[in-house]
Amino acid sequence: RLPVRSGVCDAIVTDAPFGHRCGSKKAIRKLYPRAIAECLRLLRKGGILVFLSIDEETDLVDASLRSSAAWKSLDKIQIFMGFVCIATVAQKR
Predict the structure, then answer these.
(1) What is the pTM of this model?
(2) For residue 48, what are the β-bridge partners?
């Protein structure tokens, strides 16, 4: 938990770890849902989240967003950085 009051951010953009250089796939599967829940706490109503992940972890990001009715999925943007990444854009309801 970050030492920041709840509901104070207009937007959060994160380039989440992919588990390639540090960590592991198992650690990522625990980290992403917790990170997305923390973003939900920090964002104000109507705030925007941009969560960058590797293509193979997109299902985990989507499942984490669907676990709370507070998220509205807006878009997915494919980005190539030597490998395919997906920027998932969501809005807090």
Answers:
(1) 0.89
(2) 11, 91
